[in-house]
Amino acid sequence: MKRLLGLFAIILSVSLLLTSGSMAGKSVLDEIMEAKTIVVSTDANYAPQSFLNDKGELEGFDISVAKEVAKRLGVKVKFVTPDWDLITAGKWGKRWDVSIGSMTPTKERKNALLFTLPYYSSPAQFAIHKDNTDIKTISDLAGKTIGIASETTNERYLQKDLAIEDVTIVYQDWEPGELKTYPTDSNHIEDLALGDGLRLDAIFSSRQTIAESIRSGCGNGCPIKMLGEAPYYEPLSFALDKSRANSQTLVDKLNEIIKSMNEDGTLEKLSLQFYQTNLIPKL
Predict the structure, then answer these.
(1) Fewest CB atoms within 10 A around its CB: which of 2, 28, 101, 259?
(2) 119 — alpha (psi -120 to 50), left (phi > 0) or beta?
(3) Any idea what DSSP says for residue 139?
(4) Which residues pair with 38 in a beta bridge?
(5) Helix, strand, or coil (residue 83)
(6) How do residues 18-76 score in pLDDT, each as one tens digit?
(7) pLDDT per residue as tens digits for the range 196-215
(8) In 10 A of CB 217, how many CB atoms?
(9) 150 neighbors 182 (Cβ within 8 angstroms)
């Protein structure tokens, strides 16, 4: 009897080890395929990358890219819209699987996140109120109040603390008077549109976001104008939670999809549709 009990205990232990090993070895890609859904975090107020249309549906470049990724994976896509600082902080707790939200893979972010190959690139851009006549060059922004979205590369650039691999950053030789941070870019664009110097003297965002605001009117004719050339261009990638075990298989699969979308012209087509220019890098 004791021998049988001992044998049973050994079999049970081996079984538990095999089961736990199987569970521990399940990849994020496997979990997504089993769920038949990929959960994507993005911004609901970041046109033309992602925004709510008149029907209350998400639309934009990043939304179209995410839908195409899901299609090529053979799964459905579900969108969630957490605050940007929660996305960049990592430790998502499986609330979403991937961020497809025009994120730059900075050195700091790589402490918490994994990144794919870049799927497009973005020029940074200053803008001022169209009624302003004193600010003629970027250097004239010295001592001015500038609006930026918080926890973004643009904020890091103006703080002179931005590090992007394989990108040479040349900082301005002046200092802003005040950096006013906002939850997202549309908020500081709205404040600048209220009047020249009323709340802001200038804003710093992506060129395509400012161009879309000018085109669409940003609620009140959008009386703003771009200032100077792009201080830098940044590669933009999908991001995954580094703290989530077995994520590399999903990174590898997403890289395959990005390459295929690059090679067959899908990304270029979407770039032309939403940005009216080709922002897709050659891989």
Answers:
(1) 2
(2) alpha
(3) G
(4) 77
(5) coil
(6) 444 444 578 999 999 999 999 999 999 888 999 999 999 999 999 999 999 999 999 99
(7) 999 999 999 999 899 888 88
(8) 11
(9) yes
CB 132 within 8 A of CB 218: no
Residues in the chain: 283
Rounded Cα distance, 62 and 99, in Å:
10
* CA–CA gap between residue 111 and residue 46 (Å, rounded): 25
28 in Cβ contact with 249 (< 8 Å): yes
Question: What would the two tokens of residue 148 be?
Answer: 């930026």
* CA neighbor of 119 nearest in space, from 272, 277, 259: 259
Cβ atoms 200, 145 nearer than 8 A: yes
For 134-167, the pLDDT digits (tens) are 999 999 999 999 999 999 999 999 999 998 887 8
Beta bridge mates, 80:
41
Helix (H, G, I), strand (E, B) or coil at 226: strand
Helix (H, G, I), strand (E, B) or coil at 68: helix
DSSP letter for 170, please: -
Beta strand segments in 132-201, E: 145-149, 178-182
Handedness of CA 140, 47, 80, 260 (dihedral sign): negative
Between CA 61 and CA 92 the distance in angstroms is 24
Identify whether the C-beta of residue 107 lies closer than 8 Å to the C-beta of residue 163: yes
Tell me the H-state helices in the chain. Answer: 2-24, 28-35, 61-73, 84-89, 153-158, 185-193, 207-216, 248-263, 266-275
Q: What pLDDT is stored for residue 219 in this prediction?
A: 59
147 within 8 A of 204, measured Cβ to Cβ = yes
Contact yes or no for 216/47 (Cβ under 8 A)? yes
